[in-house]
Write a structure and sequence with these properties.
Strand content: 15-25%
Strand order of the largest sheet: 7-6-5-4-1-10-9-8
Shape: elongated
Structural class: alpha/beta
Distance between the termini: 44 Å
Radius of gyration: 25 Å
Number of strands: 19
Order of helices and strands: HHEEEHHHEHEHHEHEEEHEHEEEEEEEEE
Helix content: 25-40%
Number of helices: 11
Length: 505
């Protein structure tokens, strides 16, 4: 069963969504027609549903107060599951006997696969072992509090039943099922917020979509001849509308690679989301400001960062499945990165790449569930936790060592991280310095702060047995942890203080 945190997170999201459902949107005006563009003989969007109406924006949801309300569940969740799954999982990194360089989901681009040839993959997509319930249960077991899946990646293939384009998982494959619908239903049963990745700019399947210059003209030409705008209006925007109207409450839409998406183009997507589901979050890669920032792939800031933000990350070295990449991050590495990110103020969106048959690679499942067992005991230090009030635990910049950009190299420390809640400090400790002997050097030295300490105890101790706190010979205080602990999974020391926030000394 899911922990009590997940229903609370979903309840916060659904409460605001319910209020939206009771607010009728004003009538929408028709959109201007897009210029006609010639295209090769590939499948094209259904003209009966391809021209969207200009969305009617609910202005109340553009206010700072409205944004604060819809972002709250995200701040509580902290840890989400990203899923990259599509036709690219069939070749799985190899095309016609040749290894494709780079990421698994980029094989069409990297190998310059013609559209007509790539389309044939759909005929072999039959994930007979796909089980939405099992996937969601795995996320629950892993301690993840929201799920985001690729509804359409850059290859242009919709992983749901789209009526806008026949190039979708129901109409173009022998399998004929809608995995997005099944996952949405399973997430609802488990009280997990559910969202979509959608590649709004790049679409290598369409004449007007960005990114495909081996079948079609360069992006600069598409930008000028009207075909890019035609693609946005006749495929991308209508498909986003489908996702927002056919799958229940959507916690967020994860847009990506914002090529040519500034100004009015990006704003149309914002207006579309706000008109249909005002409480749906928009990530930081649309091309115009969203509700939170997205860092670069696997890019964790060196120090704490203000605002709401998220690190999208791989569990190995690819997003989409590759047969030659089984270098799964170890549980201790995943956990350290999670706590590190939360201590800096962010969320961790960690990806898995299921195989073409619908099976999630067992190595990634095992490691995620190991982290989940730790979170079941120590999740209080992660879910809804705030930033560190300190900062020295992160390390510092080198005095003379420079990176390739000529900037000072950051030298990280990884002994401990601190997260917070009012009146509580959570020290997740991975290493205690000094030999395993009696004395202050073998104990955990607390950073300097002036607040009186009420008590300290292990988070994993159901009795919350008080641990002795003593003055350190060199100043400050240390906690007698009674044993020398060096653990790649870390252990959590809770220090309760006088006052809600730290007064630094």
């Amino acid at each position: 069963m899911s922990s009590p945190v997940a229903p609370a997170i979903l309840a916060a999201f659904l409460l605001s969504a319910a209020a939206v459902a009771q607010t009728p949107a004003p009538a929408a005006a028709p959109a201007p027609s897009a210029p006609a563009v010639s295209s090769p003989a590939v499948s094209t969007p259904d003209s009966s549903t391809s021209t969207p109406s200009t969305p009617a924006v609910v202005k109340d949801y553009d206010t700072p107060a409205a944004r604060e309300a819809r972002i709250q569940w995200f701040r509580e969740a902290k840890y989400g599951l990203f899923i990259h799954w599509g036709l690219y999982s069939i070749p799985a990194g190899t095309w016609k006997g040749q290894r494709s360089p780079g990421l698994g989901e980029w094989i069409m681009n990297r190998m310059q696969v013609p559209v007509a040839e790539y389309e044939k993959l759909a005929g072999g997509f039959a994930p007979v072992h796909f089980d939405a319930e099992a996937w969601v249960q795995m996320a629950v077991d892993a301690g993840m509090k929201y799920i985001v899946i690729t509804a359409k990646h850059h290859d242009g293939f919709a992983m749901y039943h789209s009526k806008v384009s026949p190039f979708n998982v129901v109409d173009a494959t022998p399998w004929g099922r809608d995995p997005i619908k099944e996952l949405a239903d399973a997430c609802a049963r488990h009280h997990l917020p559910f969202g979509f990745y959608y590649s709004q700019s790049q679409d290598w399947h369409e004449r007007g979509g960005a990114g495909n210059d081996w079948d079609f003209p360069a992006d600069a030409v598409k930008d000028q001849d009207g075909s890019y705008d035609q693609y946005l209006r006749t495929k991308a925007e209508p498909q986003v509308r489908e996702l927002l109207t056919g799958y229940g409450p959507v916690c967020l839409i994860w847009f990506d690679t914002a090529r040519m998406m500034g100004g009015e183009r990006g704003r149309r997507f914002v207006d579309l989301v706000r008109s249909l589901q005002p409480n749906t979050l928009i990530d930081g890669r649309l091309g115009v400001p969203g509700d939170y920032a997205s860092t670069g792939d696997n890019a964790i800031p060196a120090r704490e960062r203000q605002g709401d933000w998220e690190v999208p990350a791989t569990i190995n070295h690819t997003w989409g499945y590759r047969t030659d990449d089984t270098d799964w991050k170890a549980p201790g590495d995943i956990l350290f990165k999670l706590v590190d990110i939360v201590s800096k103020g962010g969320n961790y969106l960690l990806n898995i790449g299921p195989m073409a048959d619908g099976v999630i690679p067992q190595g990634s499942v095992d490691n995620l569930r190991t982290v989940g067992r730790w979170l079941k005991v120590n999740g209080e230090a992660v879910y809804g936790a705030g930033r560190t009030p300190f900062g020295e635990e992160y390390g510092d910049y080198a005095q003379s060592l420079k990176n390739r950009q000529g900037e000072p190299w950051f030298l990280p420390l990884q002994e401990w991280r601190c997260t917070t809640k009012p009146g509580k400090l959570y020290f997740t400790v991975f290493h205690v310095g000094g030999a395993p002997r009696k004395g202050a050097d073998a104990m955990f030295r607390l950073p300097n702060f002036k607040n009186a300490i009420k008590r300290a105890y292990y988070l994993h101790d159901p009795q919350q047995t008080p641990l002795p706190i003593q003055p350190h010979p060199e100043g400050g205080r240390y906690v007698d942890v009674t044993r020398h602990l060096n653990d790649t999974m870390g252990w959590v020391l809770v220090v309760e203080i006088e006052g809600d926030t730290v007064v630094k000394g």
